[in-house]
Design the sequence.
């Protein structure tokens, strides 16, 4: 016993130690990886963000250096705060606030004291800076816009939020990420890949050399430059025309699906969201709840399409063989239907109407008939509705287009099930939902969907997914953008509809919008719309809508214009569409009078009406 | 001549090998832990590892010296060595130099020496000499008292120099007395005392006293054989109560703040998580960092000179008391457990060799060597891993420190010399 006490204690101690070591080192296994080791600092080197060009090769977005003043509180010595504040153009309370924040974060580590100094301020400051111990200047790259247009298309970059960080491990606090527009949708191409240097640090967080001689370090890979399908000249012109109006313009090259223009009005200068004033400007834009400049109206503003939709109703009816181009009806300026002899008004002027004149004069009675026949062809209204709905949807309506834009809306094209749910007793028929025939009712579209639909008509039965990317440096664009998408309508049925749309310009609702030397096919539209004022549903002035493509043979441009509360279609949307087409195809404007009229028109008064708190008149 | 050559061959090579392995391994870890900036040369005397190189050289010289001196010298001059050592220790109060709050160093020509390290083998020699003396009967209370006195003198001198860690090492010599015949009850008493003290701190004096009272009542009710034992029970209860309340009182008044905090952390007395976090960050900062470094080593470690936490000086005092965390970080579980196994083998081997001796002096000295190394091993590695409260004490052979290395070398090689000589009849 006396021999064994110490010996056994030694063995027990040894066993406990090995057990504890096993628990700490093997069982818990918190061995450091390069990423988790807090004795290693990862210093990132940011690559150049890719440049953005328009389809003609004009540089739209580049980079510029910006300078942040950083401070290491511990190194700061007594300084002339008055002079320092005047150099940085801040006041003393701001100085103290920033300084104390930095000190709270860490007295030993650098933190940003003042961000986004301009080049001029930097040049001025850098001479004097050595007098102020503990303050340094650090260079960063931010966006430099070479243009004042296309804010909605280009989007902007901003610091990542915690959500971005948790969904993509690439991002670290303070990194920049594309938040809208192509900056968002082509973020992965534009951003490049950060380089990283692993640095051994000591307990005070000071760097004491590179980790393992930098064998794990990587160099930054610069972001790719991208070229957009946008035509900067046309985009700029479109934004000019939309001044003081709300709405959107989308122009597509039908033969490729390339988006020539996406105007959202009102817009803003993209340079507002860069640099020192960024957050102030952003808040201002964000808070403008009447104009909502940060929303891309061309992509997400859903509205009833109005009369341009009649072209699709005609095509569906032709495909279903329930009308023919010779067929004529008599319009008595109303369409009477149902047991109770309900009426749908028509403003076409009345008389005998065939397909061509119905499109050119937008005859409601004709399309009510065509729509009704299409659905009534089938014994069951629900089945008929499904067939009709499939035809319409084949033009890219009622669903996301699958494009490369950062935002979008589905819109709505009802089918049989949609109304079965509305009328659980299944007692509904074509006449119950007749307003769909003239693009009112439950149909909802966005301007880009309207433009795409027009492109499909121009192509006589197919379209390419609209896209904004023309090329990516050293990479190819998504294959789906070069894939033809067929509609369900046979190409031969497009002829009469296109003729009808051409007639709109020659002697129809848009005859005063003719552009000399260009054969344009178009269709006017007027969309009723409502808002709620103090909980009361109130009708507002109609949206002015217009779709068109030109030239009639071998179309180069398909366009949709929405001017909110612009009243009838030809009034503003039609004029803008004609001007845009002339600008794109001829490069100059011959319709000077019309251009002046549009430029000088402000609808601001119209937009303020619902907020005035007083009764107001509409459609004046 | 023949006889002498035979002696040198009886040197226990296993102990020598383990010693060499530990010293060399320790040295490389010091190189890792103490490198600041670029590594220059193993003999750069401005760096701790350079100084350690010199002390390893000095240790080799001292080994030769120790082995060449006649074995009988150590027994014969044990008292002289002890007395000289005590004088040198006492001299610290006049000529000593204060480093890190402890008055434990002499400075001679730029080199600092720590006499408390040398007092360890001197005391071990003196204890061995005393218990092996024919006139000493360790079962005799008077002799027990004298034996305790031999240990208490250096222990108290060192305690007064504010080096509480080293004092504990002398308590370890109780194992020598136990081996040589001190009554069992002392050991039991010691164990009970420690249990009651720790339990008091953990739960409170009132609680501990109540538990003991309940136990005694149960004993009286179910196991009583003789009535008169009631008085004995009451006496035990009274003593325990006094002990328990004294512990509680002295914890609050006698101990210094940092010592109190260390114990509170160890026994997990602080329940408030915010206060606990603050305590962790400040009081057990070293421990916290050393545990993290140990964890980060994993199974195989990060490799020699690749320990990122070691390089970044995350663990303070890493080349001295916390050298084991460098071992664990850079060599992983494989390296750290090897060190533990080497220590167990070393102490086990010394105990085995001691038992083979016919000479009581050699056996007692062997036990002294084993006890001293064991206490260092237990406290140092236990502390670095957070198993016991923080007590500043080096890890033998591995920790940086010239005096320590030299003293442990002398300690162990005197024993090896005695062992090599064990067959010679005196």
Sequence:
């Amino acid at each position: 016993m006396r021999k064994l006490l110490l010996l056994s204690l030694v063995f027990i101690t040894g066993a406990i130690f090995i057990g504890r070591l096993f628990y700490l080192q093997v069982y818990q296994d918190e061995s450091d990886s390069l990423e988790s080791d807090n004795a290693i600092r990862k210093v990132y080197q940011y690559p150049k963000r890719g440049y953005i060009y328009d389809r003609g090769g004009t540089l739209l977005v580049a980079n510029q250096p910006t300078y942040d003043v950083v401070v290491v509180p511990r190194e700061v010595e007594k300084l002339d705060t008055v002079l320092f504040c005047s150099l940085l153009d801040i006041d003393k309370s701001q100085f103290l606030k920033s300084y104390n924040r930095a000190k709270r974060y860490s007295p030993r580590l650098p933190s940003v004291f003042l961000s986004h100094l301009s080049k001029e301020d930097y040049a001025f400051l850098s001479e004097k800076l050595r007098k102020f111990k503990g303050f340094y200047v650090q260079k960063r790259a931010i966006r430099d816009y070479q243009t004042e247009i296309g804010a909605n298309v280009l989007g902007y970059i901003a610091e990542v939020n915690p959500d971005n960080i948790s969904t993509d491990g690439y991002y670290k606090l303070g990194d920049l990420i594309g938040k809208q527009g192509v900056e968002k949708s082509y973020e992965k191409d534009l951003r490049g890949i950060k380089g990283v240097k692993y640095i051994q640090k000591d307990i005070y967080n000071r760097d004491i050399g590179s980790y393992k001689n930098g064998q794990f370090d990587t160099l930054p890979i610069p972001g790719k430059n991208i070229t957009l399908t946008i035509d900067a000249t046309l985009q700029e012109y479109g934004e000019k025309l939309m001044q003081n109006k709300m709405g959107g313009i989308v122009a597509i090259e039908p033969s490729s699906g390339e988006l020539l223009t996406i105007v959202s009005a009102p817009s803003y200068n993209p340079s507002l969201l860069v640099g020192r004033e960024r957050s102030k400007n952003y808040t201002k834009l964000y808070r403008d709840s009447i104009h909502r400049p940060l929303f891309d109206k061309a992509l997400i503003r859903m509205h009833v399409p109005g009369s341009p939709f009649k072209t699709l109703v005609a095509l569906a009816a032709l495909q279903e063989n329930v009308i023919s181009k010779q067929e004529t009806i008599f319009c008595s300026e109303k369409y009477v239907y149902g047991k109770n002899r309900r009426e749908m008004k028509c403003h076409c002027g009345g008389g005998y109407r065939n397909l061509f004149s119905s499109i050119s004069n937008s005859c409601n009675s004709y399309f009510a008939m065509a729509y009704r026949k299409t659905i009534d062809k089938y014994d069951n209204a629900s089945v008929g509705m499904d067939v009709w709905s499939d035809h319409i949807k084949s033009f890219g309506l009622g669903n996301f287009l699958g494009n490369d834009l950062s935002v979008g809306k589905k819109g709505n094209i009802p089918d049989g099930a949609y109304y079965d749910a509305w009328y659980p007793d299944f007692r509904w028929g074509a006449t119950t939902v007749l307003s769909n025939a003239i693009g009112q009712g439950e149909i909802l579209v966005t301007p880009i969907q309207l433009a795409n639909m027009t492109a499909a008509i121009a192509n006589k039965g197919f379209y390419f997914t609209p896209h904004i990317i023309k090329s990516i440096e050293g990479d190819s664009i998504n294959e789906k953008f070069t894939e033809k998408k067929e509609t369900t309508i046979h190409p031969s049925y497009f002829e009469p509809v296109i003729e009808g749309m051409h007639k709109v310009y020659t002697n129809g609702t848009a005859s005063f919008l003719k552009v000399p030397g260009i054969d344009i096919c178009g269709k006017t539209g007027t969309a009723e719309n409502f808002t709620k004022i103090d909980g009361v549903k109130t009708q507002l002035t109609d949206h002015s809508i217009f779709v068109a493509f030109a030239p009639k043979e071998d179309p180069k441009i398909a366009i949709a214009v929405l001017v909110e509360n612009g009243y009838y279609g030809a009034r503003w949307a039609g004029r803008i569409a004609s001007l845009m087409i002339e600008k794109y195809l001829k490069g100059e404007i011959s319709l000077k009078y019309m251009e002046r009229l549009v430029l000088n028109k402000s609808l601001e008064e119209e937009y303020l009406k619902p907020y005035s708190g007083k009764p107001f008149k509409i459609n004046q | 001549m023949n006889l002498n050559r035979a002696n040198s061959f009886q040197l226990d090579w296993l102990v020598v090998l383990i010693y060499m392995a530990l010293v060399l391994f320790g040295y490389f870890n010091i190189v890792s832990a103490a490198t600041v900036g670029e590594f220059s040369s193993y003999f750069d005397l401005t760096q701790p590892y350079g100084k350690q190189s010199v002390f390893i050289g000095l240790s080799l010289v001292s080994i030769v010296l120790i082995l060449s001196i006649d074995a009988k010298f150590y027994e014969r001059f044990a008292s002289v060595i002890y007395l000289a050592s005590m004088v040198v220790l006492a001299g610290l109060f006049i000529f000593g130099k204060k480093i890190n709050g402890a008055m434990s160093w002499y400075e001679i020509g730029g080199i600092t020496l720590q006499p408390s390290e040398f007092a360890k083998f001197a005391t071990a020699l003196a204890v061995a000499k005393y218990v092996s003396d024919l006139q000493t009967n360790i079962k005799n209370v008077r002799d027990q008292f004298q034996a305790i006195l031999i240990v208490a003198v250096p222990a108290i001198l060192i305690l007064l120099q504010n080096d509480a860690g080293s004092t504990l090492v002398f308590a370890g010599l109780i194992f020598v007395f136990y081996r040589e015949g001190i009554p069992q009850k002392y050991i039991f008493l010691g164990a009970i005392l420690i249990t009651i003290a720790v339990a008091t701190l953990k739960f409170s004096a009132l609680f501990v006293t109540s538990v003991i009272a309940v136990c005694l009542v149960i004993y009286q009710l179910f196991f009583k054989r003789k009535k008169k034992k009631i008085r004995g029970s009451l006496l035990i209860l009274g003593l325990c109560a006094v002990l328990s309340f004294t512990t509680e009182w002295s914890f609050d008044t006698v101990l210094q703040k940092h010592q109190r905090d260390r114990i509170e952390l160890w026994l997990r007395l602080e329940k408030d998580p915010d206060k606990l976090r603050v305590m962790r960050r400040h009081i057990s900062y070293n421990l916290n960092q050393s545990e993290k470094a140990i964890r980060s080593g994993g199974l195989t470690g990060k490799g020699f000179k690749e320990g990122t936490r070691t390089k970044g000086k995350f663990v303070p005092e890493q080349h001295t008391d916390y050298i084991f965390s460098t071992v664990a970080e850079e060599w992983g579980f494989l390296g750290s457990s090897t060190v533990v196994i080497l220590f167990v083998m070393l102490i086990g081997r010394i105990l085995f060799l001691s038992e083979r001796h016919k000479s009581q002096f050699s056996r007692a000295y062997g036990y002294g060597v084993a006890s001293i190394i064991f206490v260092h091993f237990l406290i140092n590695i236990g502390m670095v891993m957070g198993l016991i409260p923080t007590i500043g004490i080096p890890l033998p052979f591995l920790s940086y420190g010239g005096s320590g290395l030299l003293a442990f070398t002398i300690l162990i090689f005197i024993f090896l010399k005695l062992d090599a000589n064990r067959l010679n009849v005196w």
Remarks:
- Chain A has two domains: 48-66+104-228, 232-611.
- The mean pLDDT of chain A is 89.
- The radius of gyration of chain A is 32 Å.
